[in-house]
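Example with several molecule types.
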Amino acid sequence: MAHSSAAQQRLAALSSHLSRPTARLPDWNGALAALEATFPADQLSLDAATREAHGQSWGSLLPPSPPAAVLHAQTTSDVVAVVRIATRFGIVLIPTGGRTALEGQFTPTCCNPPVHEQWNGVVPGRRQAATGGTVPRPTIHVSLSRMNQVLQLHEQDFQAVVGPGIGWQGLNEHLAAKGVKLMFPVDPAPGSEFGGMAGVAGSGTNAVGYGTLRAEWIQSMQVVLMDGSVIRTKGSNRARKSTTGWDTGRLFLGSEGTLGIITELTIRLAPVVPLKVALTSFPSVADAVTAVVEILGAGLTPTSLELLDGTSIRGLNLAKLLPDALPEEPTVLMRFSNPSEAVNRASLEAVATIVKRAGARELKIAKDEKENDELWKARKSQYWSQQLLIGKGCRTLITDVCVPISRLAEFVARSEVLVQRSGLVAPIVAHIGDGNVHRAILWKGKEGEVERPKEVELLAKALVKLALELEGTCAGEHGIGLTKRKYLRRELGDGTLALMRTVKRALDPLGLLNPDKVLFPEGEEEYM
Ligand SMILES: Cc1cc2nc3c(=O)[nH]c(=O)nc-3n(C[C@H](O)[C@H](O)[C@H](O)COP(=O)(O)OP(=O)(O)OC[C@H]3O[C@@H](n4cnc5c(N)ncnc54)[C@H](O)[C@@H]3O)c2cc1C
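Resulting structure tokens for the full complex:
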């Protein structure tokens, strides 16, 4: 890869101009005094219970890692103040939203006292710092959840300006309560908030129709940088289109809290239109993929196309959440949202013909809103119901590869062989219309276990390797955090990684903003 190493050398030379200022030893006592002098007590949590809850990333299966403190920001000025304190006293900051990210994105990696330990005058960081190597630094979680206001609503522009602490669900409920027929259509986990949604920039079940958070749903952001300045990525511009200069907003979308702290977002909204759910099952995943490609190729415009394999359906049947048990076969659920019921019905008539040709059972179309909800429950309950496949003590690692749709059937067939060889159970729920496959690897955990068993780790790696071989990605929508850094060199190449490091150094020269996420600490790279 001569091309990549030449790029790497050029960027390494550029990076040396941006050499990092020597970070001073962290001074936690100084930082704490400054925090207490700046913020009222109800904005600063030092108690064990809050720190413990904040350090728990249940979805990532990483051991709990409580921060030293949680600062509940209420304004952009609060964020500026905590940034100034952090840079003055050498303290790490991690912005947090709903804390639903799955890859360890908000897990502190630096030294913080265990929650049961009293401070007793111990300055976290000093002890470890004395041992040399990277200076470990105490961490403040900067929670943006209290900044949850809808600041402006521009109905005729299909736009809203929101704080980072409101979620897509909260916003949609707010709009519905006001009788506004607009909504935000991108739907990651319930509980996720706009700051964190921009931080990971993933998507959800509606991506096939509406695109991902990396599309144009987030038009502009107000961001606090680590030098304490506040920028707006599109300035005062709220126009629907603009080509003014570099798209600096894109830098922060998916930056996982490593480049700046988002304190306001200008977002696009979509009209609320009638919605219809339908489902059917196929003899094989390959048949389901054939039908999906045909549906998309026919110019039909589903908002969601989701696949549950036979094992996932078995979990749903065990949970008895649906009015009738479903055949334990690969099942595609779909949603159509169009300006009228008639258009939805006409689209689904065309779909019925296509799926029949691909060997599916009869297409079941919801009669009314109640049935819409009942059928969609199959999708919404999959994560929880699959635990019944293993029973008490079930632990889950959700994988998140995405491949070109044309390679999806091959991915599923070859991954089935890997799963069988591993002896593990790994049902599929896939955003099939995007080629994004979540195989949830299940196993019975032991009491107090904090590490994934070796066979689970090996299967997760093998699935990523297969996806990369098929020109896919290790992270369709859940981001990189701590757990997927090892795959980045193979997926992105050295030149792109070097460019990312250059940007990180330019924006966070002291390395205090969510360090170790996305990129390994320099000199500690362990790529696959
Ligand atoms: C059951 C379940 C299902 C899920 N399904 C999906 C899915 O379908 N699609 C999908 O895309 N994801 C999914 N996720 C993952 C998760 O919901 C998303 O990544 C979500 O966007 C994270 O938002 P959050 O508010 O929880 O962010 P957090 O987890 O709090 O933070 C995520 C990242 O953003 C950074 N961050 C937070 N706030 C800010 C800010 N104000 N400024 C800068 N950086 C910030 C954090 O430092 C962190 O790196 C799922 C998770 C779970 C648990």
